[in-house]
Amino acid sequence: MVTNRTFTMLKPDAVEKGHIGAILDKISASGFKVVALKLTHMTTADAKAFYAIHSERPFYGELVEYMTRGPIVAAVLEKDNAVEDFRTLIGATNPADAAEGTIRKLYAASIGENAVHGSDSDENAAIESAFHFAGREMF
Ligand code: DAT
Ligand code: MG
């Protein structure tokens, strides 16, 4: 298993607000190498499947609606300790609780529209990367 990679999405609110460049710049400046990258628009079926683990949560419908309302940037990132270091870089799920300087503190509006996704384990990083990218699109 690859343990030095993580998967991220710049979510619809970040794309709508024109933050793609600033967020990718911060990611690169934090030592992550982009090994896969694309702008894509998730279908309802895609978003339901991607977030299936949350299907019983009260916010699931809202989450699917939000993630499908516009394009996202999907990317695979490489760095030593990528999963944990990227979770630190993005900050807490709720931007109100996120540390100063984190991506969610800087760019997220609310817990529901929190600008960026980061995988929570090496296993999920591999699953989520394969969900969005073919092997030939990851370098
Ligand atoms: P994270 O994205 O930090 O891994 P998560 O996996 O618990 O957080 O939840 C996935 C997404 O679901 C999260 O980024 C935003 C949304 N979400 C989580 N908790 C929420 C809540 N209490 N109200 C609304 N949306 C929520
Ligand atoms: Mg999560």
Automatic annotation (TrEMBL):
One of its GO terms (molecular function) is metal ion binding. It comes from the Bacteria. GO terms for cellular component: cytoplasm. The keyword Magnesium applies. Pfam families: NDK. SMART domains: NDK (SM00562). The active site is at H117. CDD domains: NDPk_I. Residues 3-137 form the Nucleoside diphosphate kinase-like domain. InterPro entries: NDK-like_dom (IPR034907), NDK-like_dom_sf (IPR036850), Nucleoside_diP_kinase (IPR001564). Major role in the synthesis of nucleoside triphosphates other than ATP. The ATP gamma phosphate is transferred to the NDP beta phosphate via a ping-pong mechanism, using a phosphorylated active-site intermediate. Homotetramer. HAMAP family: NDP_kinase (MF_00451). This is Nucleoside diphosphate kinase.
